[in-house]
Design a protein that fits this description.
Rossmann fold; 6-stranded mixed beta sheet; globular
């Protein structure tokens, strides 16, 4: 079943500026862990951020969980965003806050800013946060400030925070780019395992082709805003990679 359908997606950041995405189409099924690969500047992050309208498309169609994303009013968009867990390249944690409070902030879409400000979270949310912190291996770091953690630990906090939304889709924007190779592999394995366990599909913008091939069942390749490949990971050939990365200066 299709969770996400993107058709002829186009993006310009200004009326007279260059087209960043040039008619991208693809579908994400309910059991997919899909990698979006391509050189820097190919449009991967822009595409990911269009899905929940952190970037406004200038053309095309995005249907997420049966809803036309581009047609949603602000209140409807806020409601839809509750269903989309996002894991960022820069972690996007609040450094002065504890690990627990950062994870609980994933419930903001349900509790509101005022309740969050005074840390008035329901007991079930606290229990849920403790469960996910255990799941990502951070039980011993619950009360630490976020800025006291390593990069890999900070990304694990980001994963737990995204899961607090009870998402129906995970969007991963270069989740390993700030991590060393060993930690990158551990983080990807963790995300893939949790996504499978919860039955949540994932769309992952990733620069590391080897990680994409190792952990993702499908790959979409972009080059300069144009789709160059779309298929099962096992069908990706060296000639496909040469075409996707033809314009990258090595």
């Amino acid at each position: 079943m299709s969770v996400l359908s993107v058709k002829d997606l186009r993006v310009r950041y200004s009326a007279n500026g260059p087209e960043i995405l040039k008619g991208i189409s693809f579908e994400l099924q309910s059991d997919d862990f899909l990698a979006m690969i391509g050189p820097s500047g190919a449009g991967k992050s822009t595409l990911i951020r269009c899905i929940n309208r952190l970037v406004e498309p200038t053309g095309g169609e995005i249907v997420l969980l049966g809803e036309d994303v581009r047609a949603l009013r602000p209140s409807e968009l806020r409601r839809l965003r509750r269903n989309v867990g996002m894991i960022f390249q820069e972690f996007n944690l609040i450094n002065r806050m504890s690990v627990m409070d950062n994870v609980l902030s994933g419930r903001l879409g349900y509790t509101g800013n005022l309740r969050s400000l005074f840390r008035h979270f329901p007991k079930k949310d606290i229990e849920k946060a403790l469960y996910y912190l255990d799941r990502v291996g951070l039980t011993d770091h619950v009360d630490k400030r976020a800025d006291a953690l390593s990069g890999g630990q900070r990304q694990r906090v980001g994963i737990a925070r995204a899961l607090m939304q009870t998402p129906k889709l995970l969007l991963l924007d270069e989740p390993t780019s700030a991590l060393d190779p060993k930690i990158s592999r551990e983080v990807m394995a963790l995300i893939m395992g949790i996504a499978k366990e919860l039955g949540v599909p994932a769309l992952c913008n990733i620069h590391d082709v080897q990680l994409a091939k190792e952990f993702c069942n499908r790959i979409v390749g972009l080059q300069d805003g144009v789709k160059k490949f779309d298929g099962e990971t096992a069908t990706l050939r060296d000639r496909d990679l040469e075409e996707i990365y033809a314009m990258e200066v090595l």
